[in-house]
Amino acid sequence: MSRSFSWLILIFFISVSFSSFSQEESKKVKNRKEQLEKQEEKKAKMGKKAHKDGVEKHKKMQTKETRKRMKQNKKKSKRHNNNRKEFFLKRWFSSVEPDEKIFFADRQVNCKLLG
After folding, report:
1. How does DSSP classify residue 99?
2. What is the DSSP letter of 105?
3. What is the dihedral of CA 41, 43, 48, 50, to 10 degrees?
């Protein structure tokens, strides 16, 4: 019984060792995979840099007023995309354009409210 048990254990260890050797990759394959990963990272990094440079070049070509408008629009769109309102004080105290106001004695009334 002990002899058959020892053979069984021997066969088990041999099968485990063969399966573990078959799963290992050769060094060449491993190195090639690492090289490919590095190349992909480098391409992605260069692509991001090229895009950033293109945006900067586009901004430089604009006038100062246009750059200012672009910056304001970017902030507004970012706020809108994040579903945020304007600052509450800005909303509370924002005034209607002067040509849209009608003045009655002591108070102002918005034209749109009058109909």
Report:
1. G
2. T
3. 160
> DSSP characters for 4-61?
HHHHHHHHHHHHHHHHHHHHPPPHHHHHHHHHHHHHHHHHHHHHHHHHHHHHHHHHHH
The answer to whether 111 and 100 have CB atoms below 8 angstroms apart is yes
For the record, the structure tokens of 18 come out as: 């063969």
3-state secondary structure of 110: strand
Domain positions in the chain are 25-114
Residue among 95, 71, 64 nearest 79 (CA): 71
| Residues with Cβ within 8 Å of residue 86, at least 6 apart in sequence | 79
Q: Collect all residues with Cβ–Cβ distance below 8 Å to 67 and sequence separation of at least 6.
A: 59
pLDDT in tens, the chain (115 residues): 677 778 878 787 777 776 655 556 788 888 999 999 999 999 999 999 999 999 999 999 999 999 999 999 999 888 888 887 778 888 788 775 544 555 555 555 554 544 4
